[in-house]
Amino acid sequence: MSEREAIEKARRIVVKAGSSSLTTPEGTIHAGRIDALVDVLAARRAAGTEIVFVSSGAIAAGLGPLGLTRRPPDLATQQAAASVGQGLLFARYTTSFARHGATVGQVLLTADDMMRRSHHRNAQRTLAQLLALGVLPIVNENDTVATDEIRFGDNDRLAALVAHLTRADALVLLSDVDALYTGDPRRPGARRIDDVRGPSDLAGIELGASGRVGTGGMVTKVEAARIAGIPVVLTNAASAAHALAGDAVGTLFHPADGRRPSTRHLWLAHATTGQGRVTLDAGAVDAVVGHRKSLLPAGVTGVDGDFAAGDPVDLCDGDGRVVARGLVNYDASEIPELMGRSTRWLARELGPEYEREIIHRDDLVVLTDRRGEGNL
User: Fold this and answer.
1) Is residue 374 part of a domain?
2) Residues comprising the binding site for substrate?
3) Do residue 181 and residue 311 come from a single domain?
4) Which residues of the sequence carry a binding annotation for ATP (predicted)?
5) Domain end among 228, 243, 266
6) Residues paired with residue 29 on neighbouring β-strands, in sequence order
């Protein structure tokens, strides 16, 4: 079965729409566009497919009511706009889906909800239960409290990770262009790309910058397709029905062969920034990269940065090359005393609470292989 046929027969699909597909340039909700998209989603749902909808647009929808003409540069005003816009946006979805007898549920996520074990499980359970109850989940990033992740990428990567959370069969990314092109499609000579099967198909492509009200460009959509691990279609909202039907529209990203990494590992690799650096000796690099082991204090030779226990940190080899990232179990100030020591010695000299890893292997993602090539 081809990937297009897999989309046509998919049991569960995640659909993501960007700000430009949902709002006007003036910063208000575009009711006509939303109703048209809802009609498409409701029709596919009525045909027996479970739909999870990832919606951008909270900040953009709040601009008009606040008298703003463009996306504000400062975080506090972005959060205020999101606070206003999110309620308006979800109210519109509730009304629009009600025309089809569909009940919707709002799910707001942050990076912590993907990284922390308990938050991750709660998000997964909530989404599963909503679907089991026949509710259509509408997911957005919680922009009212998000900090660095508020500029994460117009929810493209969030949509890919929600696809993992829900074990979806396909992902459809709706943008303001109908496909991926080799350059700006408004300029002569830009060639449309129908299929992407690997990195070689992306060679020489100019990935555009973000839009006026959104935050993502093509680069975040390509990245989302790369980490999704399922068939991904990139097209515009006007082609949504054809994309969901498996028709030959947009750009189809074919999934790479192999087992899906866990959602938490994907988020750690692609949605976080190391808050510091921990340097490893050669033996620790081999253990972490080559054998997927936990990082123990004995293998640490240096630490840099000001981070707290639970923060993501980059793990580096002796040449300073980042080889992995993980959620650290100690504050930066604690690590110098632990470096080069065995956990048994630490437990005996400092107390039993120190008989633990610097980073447990379940909270660690390898970013390179032994040859120095990208891993995820």
Assistant:
1) no
2) 56, 143, 155
3) no
4) 16, 175-176, 215-221
5) 266
6) 23
Do 188 and 306 belong to one domain?
no
pTM of the model: 0.81
SS3 172: strand
Rounded Cα distance between 183 and 163, Å, is 28
- Binding site for ATP, by residue number, is 16, 175-176, 215-221
Non-local (6+) Cβ contacts of 233 within 8 A are: 7, 170, 171, 172, 173, 243, 249, 250, 251, 252, 253
**Residue set of the binding site:** 16, 56, 143, 155, 175-176, 215-221
Q: Which residue has the higher pLDDT, 272 or 85?
A: 85
Tokens of 38: 């809802």
Residue 127 has pLDDT above 90, yes or no: yes
Q: Write out pLDDT tens, residues 255-287.
A: 876 566 677 777 788 767 899 999 999 999 999
Tell whether the torsion through CA atoms of 82, 268, 161 and 216 is positive or negative: positive
Q: What is the DSSP string of 135-166?
A: -EEEEEE-TTT-SGGGGSSTTHHHHHHHHHHT
Q: Say if CB 301 and CB 358 are below 8 A apart.
A: no
Same domain, 70 and 120: yes
In three-state form (DSSP H/G/I as H, E/B as E, the rest C), the secondary structure along 41-66 is HHHHHHCCCEEEEEECCHHHHHHCCC
Residue 280 corresponds to which tokens in the numbers above?
């490893």
The whole domain housing 98 covers: 3-266
Residue 29 sits in the same domain as residue 167? yes
* Position 211 pLDDT exceeds 80: no
